[in-house]
């Protein structure tokens, strides 16, 4: 998902008071960046092959042998979700919860399926249930926080990401998303710190580099921004946001020809990416 003009806020590690800002002090930043909404989640951590028909068939055989094992349904449900077979995945997680109503993981997995089906209300309910079963379940806080973030419930989102971080999560999503909240409130130094932590936890993913580059650019550090955007492109050359971010640097440097090429590349990858469309119009003009 492309992060377009950003309008959210955050607080700092371990704190509950917003730093030097009120709830209305949102900054609209006209920069392109990538929101890591679906870059890493429980289902995505399953190897692609595990969502194959062959593997799902093997998991079905396991369930036939052990029909009362909730974990068997949990595992097959995750594989079905990885394959995009959401209705069937939902049935498996329902069965896992029926067999083990105290399975926080099953609730969190079902929440992710609800979210992918566009049912955010049930997703939030399931994440909340998972947290009530296991108050130290970082995945549930991160999943619920992202729904809050994308729906403008900024303070609740921040509190969930903060809680996951206080639990010493090693999941980069918590830092990526808290970084986005800092970034949107013009607290770029704190955003840079969070993006750097996310990068250290997942150095082969482009999202932390894109986010950190946007904050560097907002602070006038064009050199570091350009390095981060280029690294993001090297890691995944098929991400439109990275090319649009690179184009922003070229545009700021006055090189409209290179900027236009990068914006064009972004549009080739995502014809609906509005920051690239607007940037190309500016540089072509």
From TrEMBL:
Superkingdom per UniProt: Bacteria
SMART domains linked to this entry: TPR
Cross-referenced SUPFAM superfamilies: TPR-like
One Pfam family hit: TPR_1
InterPro entries named among the record's database cross-references: TPR-like_helical_dom_sf (IPR011990), TPR_rpt (IPR019734), Ycf3 (IPR050498)
The keyword Repeat belongs to this UniProt entry's keyword annotation: yes
Keyword annotations of the record: Repeat, TPR repeat
TPR repeats, residue ranges: 70-103, 104-137, 138-171, 172-205, 206-239, 240-273
Coiled coil: none
Name of the protein in question: TPR repeat
Organism per entry: Nitratireductor basaltis
UniProt lineage: Bacteria, Pseudomonadati, Pseudomonadota, Alphaproteobacteria, Hyphomicrobiales
């Amino acid at each position: 998902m492309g992060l377009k003009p950003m309008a959210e806020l955050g607080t700092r590690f371990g704190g509950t008071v917003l730093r030097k800002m009120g709830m209305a002090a949102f900054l609209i930043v006209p920069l392109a960046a990538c929101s890591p909404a679906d870059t890493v989640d429980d289902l995505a951590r399953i190897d692609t092959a595990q969502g194959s028909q062959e593997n799902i068939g093997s998991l079905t055989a396991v369930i036939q042998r052990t029909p009362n094992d909730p974990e068997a349904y949990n595992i097959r449900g995750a594989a079905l979700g990885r394959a995009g077979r959401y209705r069937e995945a939902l049935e498996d997680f329902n069965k896992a919860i029926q067999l083990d109503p105290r399975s926080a993981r099953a609730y969190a997995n079902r929440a992710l399926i609800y979210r992918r089906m566009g049912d955010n209300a049930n997703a939030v309910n399931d994440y909340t249930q998972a947290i009530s079963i296991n108050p130290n379940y970082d995945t549930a806080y991160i999943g619920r926080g992202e729904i809050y973030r994308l729906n403008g419930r900024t303070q609740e989102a921040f509190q969930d990401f903060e809680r996951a971080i206080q639990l010493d999560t090693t999941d980069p999503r918590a830092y990526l998303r808290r970084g986005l909240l800092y970034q949107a409130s013009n607290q770029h130094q704190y955003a840079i710190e969070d993006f750097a932590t996310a990068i250290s936890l997942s150095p082969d993913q482009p999202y932390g580099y894109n986010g950190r580059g946007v904050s560097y650019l907002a602070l006038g550090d064009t050199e570091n921004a350009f390095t981060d955007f280029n690294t993001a492109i090297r890691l995944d050359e098929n991400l439109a946001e990275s090319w649009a971010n690179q184009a922003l640097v070229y545009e700021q440097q006055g090189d409209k020809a290179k900027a236009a090429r990068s914006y064009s590349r972004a549009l080739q990858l995502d014809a609906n990416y509005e920051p690239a469309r607007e940037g190309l119009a500016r540089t072509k003009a």
